[in-house]
């Protein structure tokens, strides 16, 4: 079964926001990673992010729901257009491929599905309506 979780983007305030959400929901982070953890070859995808900013954070809210987030630094802070993403976690690589192919049709592939340094098969696309999708199989 595919699970859908919301992925929030911040312009440098992800850690503060997620510390707030952590207190609100009285939960602990499942994972928190910083841009300093990203291999040098992949850093070109995040030119405006500093080492200490959040690359990925996961805060379980319930058994089925995880709130996810990252800092995506925009040069012009007034130009952030899409500060969320729907995150699909699939049960198989085949299902990830199917969903990615279908959702990206008529849209735009941001990051092709591929094996990532953190161990997931993962990709990002915008659908034809401009909704940002992150698809992952672990």
Descriptive notes:
This protein is α+β, with helices and mostly antiparallel strands. It has a single domain (3-137), classed as 2,3-Dihydroxybiphenyl 1,2-Dioxygenase, domain 1, CATH 3.10.180. It has 2 helices and 8 strands, in the order E-H-E-E-E-E-H-E-E-E. The two termini are 13 Å apart.
Biggest sheet features: 8 strands, mixed
Shape: globular
**Uncertain spans, ≥5 residues at pLDDT below 50?**
none
Question: Mean pLDDT score, rounded?
Answer: 89
Give the C-level CATH assignment.
Alpha Beta
Question: Numbering strands along the chain, what is their spatial order in the largest sheet?
Answer: 2-3-4-1-5-8-7-6
- Please count the beta strands (DSSP E, at least 2 residues each): 8
End-to-end C-alpha gap = 13 Å
The number of distinct structural domains comes to: 1
Structural topology:
Elements: E1 3-10, H1 14-25, E2 31-34, E3 54-60, E4 66-71, E5 84-89, H2 93-104, E6 108-115, E7 121-126, E8 132-137
Parallel strand pairs: 1-4, 5-8
Antiparallel strand pairs: 1-5, 2-3, 3-4, 6-7, 7-8
At a glance:
This protein has about 140 residues and is of the alpha+beta class.
Which terms summarize this structure?
single chain, 138 residues, alpha+beta, 2,3-Dihydroxybiphenyl 1,2-Dioxygenase, domain 1, eight-stranded mixed beta sheet, 2 helices
